[in-house]
């Protein structure tokens, strides 16, 4: 439509608007409630309608995430790394779309938005590399006073709910979900309330990246409305409150205490900086096994 | 109800193979499209809050908690029976299930745990699930289960004979098993609707079962691909409704297999209420043959009680 070369006598082409949908269990459902809300750009201009998720969408997402957990946690770290890298590859091919969506959502210039999208793609690559290395960093052999091998190894926490950052709609989103799934957790992410479109589009990328359905589930809508049932849900193992304001975060943390969820409290984060391993280790448990070394011969261990 | 009252009422129809065939084929035909549409539309009712709480408790009280595996151990049966008595040990207001359903050799084990409770023991018999054995063997199977203390016998019909058109053979077998149960056990007759291929056949089988003296008619064994579905349960419900209208005898219905979620169970209860009415909304007349359904009902019950979604970590896995 923006082509100036078309002559005035030709009929104007009708716009094809995209119906943004949730991404749950590898499928693209509308909200169970049938509700949508208007998403506007930084200047208040209408962009699209996004699904306004209800607590039942949250419940369905937990079921999907739990179902996917066994397979994803059981996949080899190497395989998870390949899939995360594949996500980067897929994003690279759809960069233009994400640059436009990020520019509209956050009011950035095209070149700034392009830098943000590049950083997000690089973030997937960064975490893809970490999948088979985090075990060596946080696990290892423990010296014990006895004839035993004593080995600690990190294990994923389980189903993790993530409240994505409200301001950084894409780089921030990737920075909070990639470390969670890199270690084998599955995630239910609540997209930025006012800028959910990049997150919903990311679902389309994830669906074509060999990522098993249900490993990442994207919900959009009112953060407080969706987060409350998830924080109280007995089948969610951890919650990342990055996108919550301080009052909401306090309420959710109280609800989360009921089944001893791991909680990551919100704090100011510069998502363009080097991410480090903090978010990787936030959702890991440590399993320690003892194994007898066998009888010690005259020359030391039998092994 | 005197044992086998229907035999007298249908003496003419069961006089010969030909008469029985004419009777069964004279039953009104079923419109499959209409039946499925009816069953689907009744599945769209929204049952919420207090009605849902009532439906959940009713459904729990109607469950025949079932384990029918080659790998059943006495320990597993004992655990299942204990769960039937106290489905949710953290909430003693939870109703107990109607019965536990086991193989005949496990009846005594279950009976021992259930002593003193109102939970009944149902036993499958007659060479379950295929029903491929000679009549004396089937009757011995039933005798064995009844002697071990089974309160209910779930028999399978001979689908081979039914599909071959030997209706009288099937009828006589049911009547013989009925006689073997005597007054000690209620008889459930399993048709294995997934193997009967048409809705008309399911209706014929339902009548055949009721004429033979069934106290319950039951959809399936849970061992084939297609088990209880809303349409085939609707056929059974219509059959018991018509049978009571004609003879005054009330017969129970038990869908079994494939009912796993609270939502499904509530749909079946709606089906019962809308087809045969409140007379059947009692565990004396309606049962669910299920095992994992109970876990989902308990999770939903906890959700209603606490407002939080529960998870599989908080119910037993069996």
TrEMBL record, chain A:
What InterPro entries does this protein map onto?
Answer: Ald_DH/histidinol_DH, Ald_DH_N, Aldehyde_DH_dom
Q: What's one Pfam family here?
A: Aldedh
Q: Please state every residue range assigned to the domain named Aldehyde dehydrogenase.
A: 32-264
Q: Does the keyword Hydrolase apply?
A: no
Q: Which residues form the signal peptide?
A: none
Keywords for this protein:
Oxidoreductase
User: Which SUPFAM superfamilies does this entry report, sorted A to Z?
Assistant: ALDH-like
Origin superkingdom = Bacteria
Can you say what this protein is called? Aldehyde dehydrogenase
UniProtKB/TrEMBL annotation, chain B:
For this UniProt entry, which residues form the secretion signal? none
> Any idea which UniProt keywords this protein has?
Lyase, Schiff base
Q: Which Pfam families does its entry note?
A: DeoC (PF01791)
The residues that cross the membrane are none
Highest taxon above the source species: Bacteria
Q: In which pathway does it act?
A: Carbohydrate degradation; 2-deoxy-D-ribose 1-phosphate degradation; D-glyceraldehyde 3-phosphate and acetaldehyde from 2-deoxy-alpha-D-ribose 1-phosphate: step 2/2
Q: Which reaction does it catalyse?
A: 2-deoxy-D-ribose 5-phosphate = D-glyceraldehyde 3-phosphate + acetaldehyde
Q: Which SMART domains match?
A: DeoC
Q: Which InterPro entries match?
A: Aldolase_TIM (IPR013785), DeoC (IPR011343), DeoC/FbaB/LacD_aldolase (IPR002915)
- EC numbers on record: 4.1.2.4
PANTHER family assigned? DEOXYRIBOSE-PHOSPHATE ALDOLASE
Family as reported in the entry's similarity comment: Belongs to the DeoC/FbaB aldolase family. DeoC type 2 subfamily.
This one is known as Deoxyribose-phosphate aldolase
The organism is Streptomyces violascens
Q: What is the lineage of its organism?
A: Bacteria, Bacillati, Actinomycetota, Actinomycetes, Kitasatosporales
């Amino acid at each position: 439509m923006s082509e100036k070369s078309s002559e005035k006598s030709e009929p104007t082409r009708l716009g094809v608007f995209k119906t943004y949908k949730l991404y749950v269990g590898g499928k693209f459902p509308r909200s169970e409630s049938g509700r949508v809300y208007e998403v506007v750009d930084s200047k208040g201009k209408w962009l699209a309608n996004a699904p306004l998720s209800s607590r039942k969408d949250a419940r369905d997402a937990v079921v999907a995430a739990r179902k996917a957990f066994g397979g994803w946690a059981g996949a080899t770290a190497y395989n998870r790394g390949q899939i995360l890298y594949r996500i980067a590859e897929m994003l690279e091919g759809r960069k233009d779309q994400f640059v436009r969506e990020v520019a509209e959502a956050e009011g950035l210039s095209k070149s700034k938005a392009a830098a943000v999208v590049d950083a997000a793609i690089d973030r997937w690559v960064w975490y893809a590399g970490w999948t088979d290395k985090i075990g060596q960093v946080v696990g290892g052999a423990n010296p014990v006073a006895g004839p035993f091998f004593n080995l600690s190894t990190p294990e994923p926490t389980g189903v993790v709910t993530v409240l994505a950052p409200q301001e950084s709609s894409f780089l921030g989103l990737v920075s909070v979900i990639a470390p969670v799934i890199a270690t084998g957790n599955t995630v239910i992410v609540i997209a930025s309330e006012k800028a959910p479109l990049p997150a919903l589009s990311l679902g389309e990328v994830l669906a074509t990246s060999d990522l098993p359905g249900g490993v990442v589930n994207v919900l959009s809508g009112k953060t407080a409305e969706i987060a409350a049932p998830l924080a109280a849900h007995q089948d969610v193992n951890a919650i990342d409150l990055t996108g919550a304001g301080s009052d909401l975060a306090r309420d959710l943390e109280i609800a989360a205490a009921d089944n001893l969820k791991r909680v990551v409290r919100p704090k100011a984060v510069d998502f363009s900086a080097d991410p480090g391993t903090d978010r990787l280790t936030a959702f890991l448990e440590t399993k320690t096994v003892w194994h007898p070394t066998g009888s010690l011969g005259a020359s030391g261990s039998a092994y | 109800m005197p044992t086998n009252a229907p035999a007298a009422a249908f003496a003419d129809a069961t006089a010969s193979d030909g008469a029985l065939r004419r009777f069964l084929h004279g039953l009104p035909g079923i419109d499959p499209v209409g039946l499925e549409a009816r069953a689907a539309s009744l599945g769209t009712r929204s049952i919420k809050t207090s009605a849902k709480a009532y439906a959940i408790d009713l459904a729990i009280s109607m469950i025949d908690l079932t384990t029918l595996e080659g790998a059943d151990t006495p320990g597993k049966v004992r655990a299942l029976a204990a769960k039937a008595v106290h489905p949710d040990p953290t909430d003693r207001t939870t109703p107990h299930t109607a019965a536990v359903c086991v193989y005949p050799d496990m009846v005594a084990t279950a009976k021992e745990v259930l002593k003193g409770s109102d939970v009944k023991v149902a036993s499958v018999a007659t060479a379950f699930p295929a029903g491929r054995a000679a009549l004396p063997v089937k009757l011995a199977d039933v005798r064995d289960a009844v002697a071990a203390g089974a309160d209910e016998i779930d028999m399978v019909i001979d689908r081979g004979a039914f599909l071959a058109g030997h209706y009288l053979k099937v009828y006589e077998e049911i009547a013989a098993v009925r006689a073997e149960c005597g007054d000690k056990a209620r008889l459930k007759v399993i048709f294995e609707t997934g193997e009967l291929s048409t809705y008309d056949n399911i209706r014929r089988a339902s009548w055949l079962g009721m004429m033979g003296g069934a106290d319950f008619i039951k959809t399936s064994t849970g061992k084939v691909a297609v088990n209880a579905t809303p349409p085939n349960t609707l056929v059974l419900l219509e059959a018991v409704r018509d049978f009571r209208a004609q003879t005054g005898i009330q017969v129970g219905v038990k869908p079994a297999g494939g009912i796993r979620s609270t939502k499904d169970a509530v749909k079946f209860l709606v089906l019962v209420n809308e087809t045969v009415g409140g007379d059947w909304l009692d565990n004396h007349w309606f049962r669910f043959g299920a095992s994992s359904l109970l876990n989902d009902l308990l999770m939903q019950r906890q959700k209603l009680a606490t407002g939080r979604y529960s998870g599989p970590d908080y119910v037993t896995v069996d």
